[in-house]
Protein: DUF4194 domain-containing protein
Organism: Promicromonospora citrea
Amino acid sequence: MRTPEEQAIGTAVIGLMRGVVYRESDETRWVALGRHAGPVRDHFAAIGVDVVIDDVEGYAYLRAREAEDGEEPLPRLVNRRALTYNVSLLLVLLRKRLAEFEATGGEGRLVLSRDQIVEMLRVFLAESTNEARVLDQAVRTIGQVRDLGFLRELRGQTDLWEVRRVLKAYVDASTMGDFDAKLTEYANAQTGSGSDD
């Protein structure tokens, strides 16, 4: 029979294996993780995985540890998958909006309507006379970002989405800068203002 401590550690470990643990929506696992962070970290360290806990933002997640010089890397626990252009685009756009929200003193959580998110995407989606097709593409992209855990639809409020702060851990300033440069190239190619070599 498990002791209460073993039960709490198991609860925290299983929560992290299922995805991001949020303080606000999973208080039991969050408290267990806070009390038993050492044993939980030790558990995952044996398989080359780090536990990242952000007490300020209130989330925790697992991240594969990079092999150090001369160290043979362990097999990846979770396979990496390439993101589509639209998903990558939306992640960067949401990260920029979150940075703007925080820079203007926005407290609490960033909530956007589906229409606001669609408009953010529309600027970069290929021009089309078929409005329904553009909307369908944008809604599909929103669903994919939700499935990745970076957007959460507010309960009981149709088409309102919370931008999850864990996005900051996945899309950093360097990534945003690189993507901005690519977006500029793309925009220039679309408008024909790029230089012809």
Notes: The first helix runs from residue 4 to 18. The helical segments are 4-18, 27-35, 37-45, 85-103, 114-122, 131-147, 167-170, 173-191. The longest strand covers residues 49-54.
